[in-house]
């Protein structure tokens, strides 16, 4: 496992719209940087590298994080001939569109689509499907895997990632305990996906064969001030409002300092904000 600061070759801020750059900053570029390393170290070294004949789906893409990672990591002549970037949230799709309009990708389309129902996409269409840190946000993750499988060509490669340790949740819980230890901790979506074996099981039960599935783990320690600042903004703001449910005004006013203190403790303990991820590669 390696600890990696933000990659210097990422196309920021040129390929990011304002919205997309806020998203990337507030995730500490964690989803982008982990995927960028996966592309260069796991996908391009596999039997199914991405190249100029590839047709790639970046599903539940947020503001086009998968496409941005491709641009960051692949030389221009290796970029896929076609990329579909999709998400079911219109603002994510428009953020992706604004970001990628100036990218060197030969052909990129950004569309509002439900990853769990890709009926407008034919069978056996993509050579690669990227599902980056989204599976735990799906209401029906099994359907999303089935759709990934159906839309992949035989021999095509799916890249499905999910968190093993989503650091902001640990930090938010620590901040909650400092103010109102008596209240319930903020819930995390689909926590079963943090457990070992669950991602493989869901993938293997919904189309992919066990022998064609590989799992690796990756660690990212975010230690630079800019990305720590972005993550601190995320944890201090409305995305974590649930953590402050039942707070008085006075308790609310202590939240930002409590988050900052909890970030400091995380950094002291781990040398930065420590993310761990499961990376699953599955061939159809
Ligand atoms: C944690 S974000 C990950 C985004 C991006 N893939 C990344 O690497 O940062 C989860 C994304 O999944 C999207 N999403 C959730 N459910 C979805 C669904 N059923 N269909 C398509 N997108 C969905 C959300 O809108 C959000 O953009």
Describe this structure in words.
With 284 residues, the chain is an alpha/beta fold. It has a domain at 18-166 and 189-223 and 272-283: 3-Layer(aba) Sandwich (Rossmann fold). Helices cover 38% and strands 20% of the residues. It is built from 10 helices and 7 strands. It has helices at residues 18-26, 30-43, 65-73, 90-100, 141-151, 167-179, 198-204, 225-236, 249-253, 255-270, and strands at 55-58, 82-87, 108-112, 126-132, 152-165, 213-222, 273-283. A 7-stranded mixed β-sheet has the order 3-2-1-4-5-7-6. β1 (55-58), α3 (65-73) and β2 form a beta-alpha-beta unit. α1 packs across α8 (225-236) and α2 crosses α3 (65-73). The longest helix has 16 residues, at 255-270. The radius of gyration is 19 Å and the shape is globular. The protein starts with 17 loop residues before the first helix and ends with a strand.
What's the short version?
Helices cover 38% and strands 20% of the residues. It has helices at residues 18-26, 30-43, 65-73, 90-100, 141-151, 167-179, 198-204, 225-236, 249-253, 255-270, and strands at 55-58, 82-87, 108-112, 126-132, 152-165, 213-222, 273-283.
Brief descriptors of the model:
binds S-adenosylmethionine, seven-stranded mixed beta sheet, 10 helices, S-adenosylmethionine-dependent methyltransferase activity, S-adenosyl-L-methionine-dependent methyltransferase, 284 residues, transferase, Methyltransf_11, SAM-dependent_MTases_sf, Rossmann fold, alpha/beta
């Amino acid at each position: 496992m390696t600890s990696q600061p933000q990659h210097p070759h990422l196309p920021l801020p040129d390929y990011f719209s304002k919205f997309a750059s806020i998203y990337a900053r507030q995730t500490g570029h964690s989803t982008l940087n982990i995927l960028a390393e996966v592309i260069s170290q796991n996908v391009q070294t596999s039997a199914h590298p991405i190249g100029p004949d590839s047709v790639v789906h970046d599903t539940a893409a947020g503001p086009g994080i998968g496409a941005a990672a491709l641009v960051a990591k692949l030389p221009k002549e290796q970029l896929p001939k076609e990329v579909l970037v999709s998400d079911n949230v219109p603002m994510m799709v428009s953020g992706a569109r604004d970001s990628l309009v100036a990218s060197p990708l030969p052909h990129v389309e950004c569309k509002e689509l439900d990853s769990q129902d890709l009926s407008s996409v034919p069978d056996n269409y993509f050579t690669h499907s990227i599902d980056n840190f989204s599976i735990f946000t799906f209401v029906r993750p099994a359907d999303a895997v089935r759709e990934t499988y159906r839309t992949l060509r035989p021999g095509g490669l799916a890249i499905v990632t999910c968190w093993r340790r989503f650091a902001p949740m640990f930090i938010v819980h620590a901040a909650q305990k400092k103010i109102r230890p008596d209240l319930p901790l903020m819930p995390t979506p689909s926590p079963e996906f943090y457990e070992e074996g669950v991602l493989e099981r869901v993938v293997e039960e919904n189309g992919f064969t066990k022998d064609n599935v590989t799992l690796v783990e990756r660690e990212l320690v975010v230690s630079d001030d800019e990305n720590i600042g972005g993550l601190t903004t995320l944890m201090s703001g409305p995305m974590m409002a649930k953590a402050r449910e039942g707070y008085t005004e006075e308790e609310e006013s202590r939240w930002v300092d409590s988050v900052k203190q909890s970030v400091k403790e995380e950094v002291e303990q781990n040398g930065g904000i420590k993310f761990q991820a499961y990376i699953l590669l599955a061939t159809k």
